[in-house]
Design a protein that fits this description.
By secondary structure, the chain is α/β, with parallel strands linked by helices. It contains eight helices and seven strands. It has a seven-stranded mixed sheet with strand order 1-4-3-2-5-6-7, sandwiched between helices.
């Protein structure tokens, strides 16, 4: 990772891009006019239109407890590109948080080997969850360039759930589903993740620690949706359990 993390002026904003260290837009409190404006802009972008390039935000908790799952996700991320290749193409933006107040994002990546190389250089560090900043980045990207789905992999939630739900509601208005894949059985995290999924029209699924097969199927399903929409996910659900789990929850 180049350079040291840039400390944000607002604790709700992603600090920098992992590739260029460019500061991302700062978050602010939304008014009803703001919400209406970004919904209109997002609709104009039409990311779900036939032939549009699929864009998926791949967000990971990179705090200390997550190192085994980070390594597993690094090994499995190529499966998302392979699944999407059947339907068209996929760009992935990696967002992760770790340590003290560090949250970073890459640019849009269309090469699995490039993403794998980048992920292999990142180590997990102790710190609190920063899911709110992940959702803020997703909102900004949904308006700026169009996002079809967000995938989040984590095991804990240490933030104000109502604040997270407000951000999730904005993503729901933008029709950007969040697929939350929870490792373990933390009850607080499960409650928050389920509500975020409900508000965005996404889905929540649990996978067991170290269960690479489970996570692979879930990531493949999310990639299918990002590349081909609901119809692609429905087709995959006929043969893949991960896709069936997601489609069973989506509105």
């Amino acid at each position: 990772m180049p350079g040291d993390p840039i400390k944000p002026r607002n604790s709700d904003a992603v600090s920098a891009t992992a590739e260029s260290d460019g500061v991302l837009p700062q978050a602010k409190t939304s008014t009803s006019e703001d919400v209406a404006a970004f919904v209109a802009k997002a609709h104009a972008l039409s990311p779900h239109a036939p032939g549009a390039k699929g864009r998926l935000i791949f967000a990971l908790d990179a705090t200390m407890s997550r190192q085994p799952t980070w390594d597993m996700a690094c090994a499995l991320q190529a499966d998302m590109f392979r699944e999407a290749a059947v339907l068209g193409s996929l760009d992935i933006r990696l967002v992760y948080y770790r340590g003290y107040n560090e949250c970073r994002a890459t640019g849009w990546i269309s090469d699995s080997s490039k993403l794998a190389t980048l992920m292999s250089k990142i180590d997990c560090r102790g710190g609190d969850t920063q899911i709110g900043r992940v959702l803020t980045d997703a909102r900004c990207e949904a308006v700026a360039s169009g996002v079809r789905a967000v995938v989040f992999v984590g095991d804990a939630m240490e933030e104000k759930v109502d604040a997270l739900c407000a951000k999730a509601g904005e993503l729901g208005m933008l029709k950007v589903p969040v697929f939350l894949f929870q490792e373990g059985h933390d009850a607080v995290a499960e409650q928050a993740f389920r509500e975020i999924a409900r508000l965005t029209g996404g889905a929540w699924c649990r996978f067991d620690p170290g269960a690479a097969v489970q996570l692979r199927e879930l990531l493949r399903a999310a990639a299918a949706y990002a590349a081909g929409g609901r119809e692609a996910l429905l087709r995959l659900a006929k043969t893949a359990s991960g896709a069936a789990k997601l489609i069973g929850q989506m509105k």
